[in-house]
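Service request form, structural biology core

Requester: graduate student, group of Dr. S.
Request type: structure prediction, single chain
Budget code: on file
Notes: please return the result as C-alpha cells.

Sequence provided:
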Amino acid sequence: MSATTLYVDALINHTFRDTPFGAPTIHVGLLTAVTNAETPAFTEALYGSYARQSIDGDAAWDAPVAGEGGRITANTGLIGFPQNTGSAETMIAAGIFSAITAGSLYFIIGIGGVAKLCTALNAGDLFTHDAHGFADDDIVRAENVPGVNALPTGLAENTRYFVANQTATTFTLSDTAGDGSPVVLTSDGQALIKPFDEIQVNANDTPEIAIGALVIPFD
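Core staff response, request fulfilled:
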C-alpha cells in the first residue's frame, strides 16, 4: 500500500479508538525525492510558480474497483500544475496532501501505472507476472506485500531499480539503466513492483498528470 503511516494511524484511530477522522480535502502535489514512503520522508517540487492542486469531491475520483492485490481509485480528470517559471526539476511521484500548503502527506503514488504483485524467484533472479506490462529500463520500486513480513532477500524498499531482460511474463531488476545485470535474489518470495516514471519539468513546461494515471491503492 502507498499510504503513509500518518494516514493509516488516522484510520485505525477513527475505526477502533473513537478518534474522529473527517473526510479530508484532497490536494495533489509533485515530489522530487522519496527517501521513506511510510514515515514519510520526501522532497516536494520547488520550481517557480509551483503549487499543489485541489482535486476533491466524488466526481474527481473513480468509484472503487478491484485492482492488483486490493481496491483502487484513480483521477477522473487531467491534473494540471502551474508553468515552471524557474529551473528544471525531475518529478518521481505524486503526493496526496491534506492541505494546499504544509498539512499531512497521506499517500505517495508513483506516476506511470499500477503496482504489480510479482513472484520473486531465487533461481535466475526472476520476477514473474502473467501480464506485467513493463519494458526494459522502466523505473520501479519494490514494496512489501501486505501480510508478508519482508521482501525477498536482495531487494530493498525506497530504492530505485530498472526493469531488465523482460519477456511477456518475466523480468529482472537492475541497479543501472541499460545494464541488464540482475539484482541478485537469495530467497524466493513476493513483492509489489511499482512504476515510478521520472518526469523532467524544464523551464516553461506545464506538468500534467493524465486522466487515470494517478492510481490510489487500498490493500
